[in-house]
Structure formats: structure tokens, C-alpha cells
Design a protein that fits this description.
Strand content: 15-25%
CATH class of the largest domain: Alpha Beta
CATH topology of the largest domain: Cobalt-precorrin-4 Transmethylase, domain 1
Number of helices: 6
CATH architecture of the largest domain: 3-Layer(aba) Sandwich
Length: about 150
């Protein structure tokens, strides 16, 4: 798949929604023609974001190329929870389009928030994702004294 003519803007958004976005993210969303994201994320946008709102289909990954092709040539923003490059849609889009096709505006990840709340150094914390993975993945990471225990 060839990259779109204009870079996709991938915007990390938190539960604080519009209020938590940096000015660059707000401006990108105000000027977008299409915003793609999960229904919960799309609901966080105010009415003055007049772009067409497109929810991700399920299953997501096989639908991405067709969805991007459908909106090729338009100013597209993609919403992601937290940091899009941390177990997020940013990785998928980079694999499909290459890093030059994306402009990524991250928000703190859930891991950043959890480590801040617990007083843990993020670089010393083992992180894994259970999205689409068996629960046994977690069992293998739990051991006495681990930051995940």
C-alpha cells in the first residue's frame, strides 16, 4: 500500500478528552476532513470538530488499508488512546504506511499514569499487553518481587 499524499495525523487522547489535548492536536482535529477512532474517542470531540467521524470497524487490522484508501487525499486524523506508538494504532499504521506517512501527537500512556501514581520508574517496570493475547501471558510475567506482582 502506498502512503497517502498528506501525512495522517495520529493523535493520542486521554479520558480527559479535548481539555487534555495540546494545541497542535486541537488544531489538527479542527482542520481535519475525516477523524477515525473508536466510538468512545470520537464522543470526546466537541461539536466544532466538523470532520466526518468514522468509527473503527471490527476486526480493525484487516480493515485499515481499505478504510485509508476510502479517504485517500483527504486530511485524516486518527484518534488513539494515550500514546499511539505504545501498543497502539500508531504501530499498525507505521507497519502499513511507513513512518514518513504519519505525524504522531502522543498523549501520556496508561502506563505513564500508573507509574506516576504508584511511584514506580517506568523504565524499571515490566509492561505487557493482553490485547489479543491469552491470559497465560500475564501468568508468565508474575513472580515474587516483580513490579507486576
Amino acid at each position: 500500500m502506498s502512503p497517502p499524499p498528506t501525512p495522517l495525523t495520529v493523535i493520542g487522547i486521554g479520558a480527559d478528552g479535548w481539555d487534555g489535548l495540546a494545541p497542535a492536536g486541537r488544531e489538527a482535529l479542527r482542520t481535519a476532513e475525516v477523524v477515525i477512532g473508536g466510538p468512545r474517542q470520537l464522543d470526546l470531540l466537541p461539536p466544532d470538530c466538523a470532520a466526518e467521524r468514522v468509527p473503527w470497524p471490527s476486526p480493525l487490522r484487516p480493515a485499515v488499508p481499505g478504510l485509508l484508501a476510502e479517504h485517500a487525499g483527504r486530511r485524516v486524523c486518527v484518534l488513539a488512546s494515550g500514546d499511539p506508538m505504545f501498543f497502539g494504532i500508531g504501530r499498525t499504521l507505521t507497519e502499513l504506511l511507513g513512518p514518513g506517512a504519519l505525524r504522531v501527537l502522543p498523549h501520556p500512556s496508561s502506563v505513564s499514569y500508573a507509574c506516576a501514581r504508584l511511584g514506580w520508574a517506568q523504565e524499571a517496570t515490566e509492561v505487557l499487553s493482553l490485547v489479543g493475547r491469552p491470559l497465560a501471558t500475564l501468568s508468565r510475567a508474575l513472580y515474587p518481587g516483580s513490579p507486576t506482582a
